[in-house]
Amino acid sequence: MTGTLLFQSLVLGVLLGGLYALLAAGLTLYFGVMRVVMIAHSAFLILAAYLAWFFHQQTGMDPLLSLVITVPLFFLVGVGMQRLLITRLRPATLTMMSVLLTFAVALFIEGMIGFVWSGTQRRIQLPYSGASIEFFGARIAVVKLVAFALAALALAGLYLLMKHSRFGQALRATIQHREAAQLVGIKTDRVAGFGFGLGLATAAIGGTALSLDATIYPSLHWHWIGPLMAIIVVGGLGSIPGAAIAAMVLGIGQSLLQVPLGTTWAQTIFYVALFATLMLRPQGFFGGRLAQRF
Amino acid sequence: MSDPTSSPEPEFLLELNDIQAGYGRAAMVLRGLTIKVPPATVVCLVGPNGAGKSTVLKVASGLLAPRSGRIVVNGADVTGQGPQEMLTSGLAHVLQGHSVFREMSVAENVLLGAYTLRDKALIAERVEFVQSLFPIVGERWKQLAGLLSGGQQKQVEFARSLMVSPRVVLLDEPSMGLDPKTTATVFEQVVRMREAGVAVLLVEQNARRALETADIGCVLDLGCVHITGPAPELLADPQLSELYLGGRPAERAPSTDG
Questions:
Q1: Fewer Cβ atoms within 10 A, N terminus or C terminus of chain B?
Q2: Which residues pair with B155 in a beta bridge?
Q3: Taking CA B70 as the corner, what is the angle to CA B64 and CA B76, rounded to the nearest 5 degrees?
Q4: Does A91 touch chain B (CB under 8 A)?
Q5: What would the pLDDT profile of A141-160 be if each residue is shown by its tens digit?
Q6: Which residues of A touch B99 (CB under 8 A)?
Q7: CA–CA separation, A19 vs A160, rounded Å?
Q8: pLDDT at B251
Q9: A-chain residue closest to B89, CA distance
Q10: Do B108 and A169 touch (CB under 8 A)?
Q11: CA distances from A65 to A142, A204, A208, A209, B240 (A)
Q12: What number is the average pLDDT over the span A179-205?
């Protein structure tokens, strides 16, 4: 592997890791707040990508503008989904049953996308789609940079919201000790609903970022959910910073392994990391103390 | 709801009248239980495991809705309301075990105690007050609460619950898992709360120790109050000592009913 190729892979890995980080943050948030395993997270991701593509196709405007619609829409759908579906599950079997429930939601979304937009592969063509910039000898596509910037901004926003807003404090308190949160006057059911909406909003942003640079089709979400699940287990379930760090490390690893192994085998890094984590440190590498911190 | 500052002091700050409560479809845990706590008084619940002591507190703070019965806090009927409404009526509940927000600083924990308050000056005043009551809270202000020792965490929990300036405080096994020295500190704080005019309802495994601090003792068994009386009398009763306080063997008293 030449130095330039290595550096190029590294940069691409960072850019990919940023998107993984945002999506994994959302996925681990559902688990942290409600002990829900959200299989449909990546289905919403692909749905948002389709909405961005559709928006671009209909209006001719930049797909990034679709965020103005999809982010609040997904937030509301998330709140509704938590209040109307998730809370109907029995608390004792919530985690197990949430897998089935959200699996069904994923299938439903996949079917709806196929029904409305057919199974044809779609791709957004933008004036800057082919543009790239030279960065210390590495060629980086502009769309990848835009996607990364979007993911990074969204993660930074999530961090500020969790760390410094009244809602973020209430959400963290709910994650860390639900009964104690109720006893200081936090309406934990409402907070959990908003937390779920926040998770789906990350899928909206991630999907828009993805649409800039990817060919999309209805069943694409199955390619995403596996790596994302692996990331949040490696990072420690419920830990947002753990998810972000694991996403970055594994994203870079995947990108570097693509050179010698090809794309298919590079994907296995997620599952190797998952097995290694379950054998060596089942609570995740940032579980325990970091798990509930932000 | 009456304004607690303008209305005359009610005779009891907390009244649980004929409460029936339980979890899910399982059998009732509380079966017609009545407990009344006057102002500036420590009432201690004693009884065997499974008597329903913790459930009494959960019902009183709104974490568990009673099937029947009436709850009055500070003169206001709050039956069937959730923890947030109970809190604004002047009731705070310190849970069993450790219930600090572990991955937040002591400061964040204490300030979350004032989550329902908006008045910044009032909050600052209360922070100063709880820091003077529990010096460790001020000393460890910036540290992560989960890294403090068990006794220090308990004091953070006390401080957090006092931020709303409650008239009624429910304490569930405040000495559990603590060494004797820290236990002494905790009971010292209970006495201080009473001195501050707070009504305290206390549940303790260490019943003898608790009754030495309390004014009134209630012996709970099978979801009912069996015996209520001044704490020193309960302590002196040889039959009670034998049955509930793990005490010395003594000759049977003729009757302890009523």
A1: C
A2: none
A3: 100
A4: no
A5: 899 999 999 999 999 999 99
A6: 177, 179-180, 183
A7: 18
A8: 44
A9: A185
A10: yes
A11: 17, 12, 9, 11, 74
A12: 93
Q: Is A250 exposed, middle or buried (0-12, 13-18, 19+ CB in 10 A)?
A: buried
Q: Do B57 and B201 touch, CB atoms closer than 8 A?
A: yes
Q: Do A172 and B103 touch (CB under 8 A)?
A: yes
Token output for B250:
């003594």
The nearest CA of chain A is from the CA of B250 a distance in Å of 42
**Token match 């940023």: residue?**
A18
Q: What is the pLDDT of residues B85-139, one digit of tens each?
A: 888 888 999 998 889 998 899 999 999 999 999 899 999 999 998 898 888 899 9
The confidence band for B247, taking pLDDT boundaries of 50, 70 and 90, is low
DSSP code at position B105: B
Shortest distance between the Cα of A236 and any Cα of chain B, in A, equals 15
**DSSP string covering A45-102, please?**
HHHHHHHHHHHHHHH-S-GGGGHHHHHHHHHHHHHHHHHHTGGGS-GGGHHHHHHHHH
C-alpha–C-alpha distance, residues A117 and B86, integer Å: 52
Average pLDDT, chain B: 84
Q: Sign of the CA dihedral A69, A74, A79, A85?
A: positive
B54/A contact by beta carbon, under 8 A: no
φ/ψ (deg, to 5) at B14: -135, 125
CATH 3.40.50.300 placement within chain B: 10-90+166-250
- What average pLDDT does the segment A212-218 reach? 92
Query: Topology of B10-90+166-250 in CATH?
Result: Rossmann fold (3.40.50)
For A:167-186, CB contacts with B below 8 A are: 169-170, 172-173, 176-177, 179-186
What ipTM is given for this predicted complex?
Answer: 0.83
DSSP letter for B253, please: P
Nearest to B99 among A177, A290, A292 (CB): A177
Per the listing, tokens 């759908």 go with A77
> Which letter, b or e, does each residue of A132-169 get, where b requires 16 or more Cβ atoms within 10 Å of its Cβ?
eeeeeebebbbbbbbbbebbbebbeebbeebeeeebbb
Specify the pTM: 0.84
Residue among A177, A182, A289 minimizing CB distance to B101: A177
Locate A190 and state its tokens.
Answer: 């409402």
Residue type, A262: G
